[in-house]
């Protein structure tokens, strides 16, 4: 989840990673943030009348199994998970021990589940 629409796919997550994603998604939604918006970008652009829309979903590895890029992506995902910790604890009543256990377990899951993130890219033109 980032400005370019990165989103770790739940199809390639282990249970701890999936739990973190669920908590973060719920805490974000309670703040009025929709983390799944990147998946709907094409429809949103169509809805405002853009034409010649180009939409692409690009999978990127997360974890050392994906080489240098995967290692960098894992660092980014972990940074997001750590940054969201306090919000999840305060909004959802998750205990610090539960969150920290899921955070630690998620590191191993990236490689064993061959996790990846999806980056969504979309652009369009205003009609003349």
Looking at this protein, list some descriptive labels.
flat; alpha+beta; single chain; disordered N terminus; about 130 residues; three-stranded antiparallel beta sheet
Tell me briefly what this model is.
The protein has 128 residues and is of the alpha+beta class. It is built from five helices and three strands, in the order E-H-H-E-H-H-H-E. The chain has a three-stranded antiparallel β-sheet.
Describe the structure.
It contains five helices and three strands; from the N terminus they run βααβαααβ. The chain has helices at 15-30, 41-47, 67-83, 85-92, 96-112, and strands spanning 7-8, 51-61, 116-125. The chain has a three-stranded antiparallel β-sheet.
Structural class: alpha+beta
What is the number of beta strands? 3
Radius of gyration: 16 Å
Number of helices: 5
Span between termini: 33 Å
* Helix and strand element order: EHHEHHHE
Main beta sheet strand tally, sense and closure: 3 strands, antiparallel
Fraction in beta strands: 15-25%
Low-confidence stretches: 1-10
Q: Tell the overall outline.
A: flat
The pLDDT mean sits at: 90
Oligomer: single chain
Give, in spatial order, the strands making up the sheet with the most strands. 1-3-2
Helical content class: 40-55%
């Amino acid at each position: 989840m980032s400005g370019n629409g990165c989103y770790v796919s739940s199809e390639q997550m282990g249970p701890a990673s999936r739990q973190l994603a669920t908590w973060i998604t719920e805490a974000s939604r309670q703040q009025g943030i929709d983390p799944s918006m990147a998946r709907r970008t094409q429809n949103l652009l169509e809805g405002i009348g853009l034409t010649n829309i180009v939409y692409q979903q690009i999978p990127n590895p997360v974890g050392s199994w994906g080489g240098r890029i995967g290692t960098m992506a894992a660092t980014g995902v972990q940074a997001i998970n750590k940054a969201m910790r306090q919000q999840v604890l305060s909004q959802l009543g998750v205990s610090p021990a539960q969150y920290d256990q899921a955070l630690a377990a998620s590191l191993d899951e990236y490689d064993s589940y061959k996790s990846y993130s999806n980056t969504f890219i979309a652009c369009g033109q205003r009609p003349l």
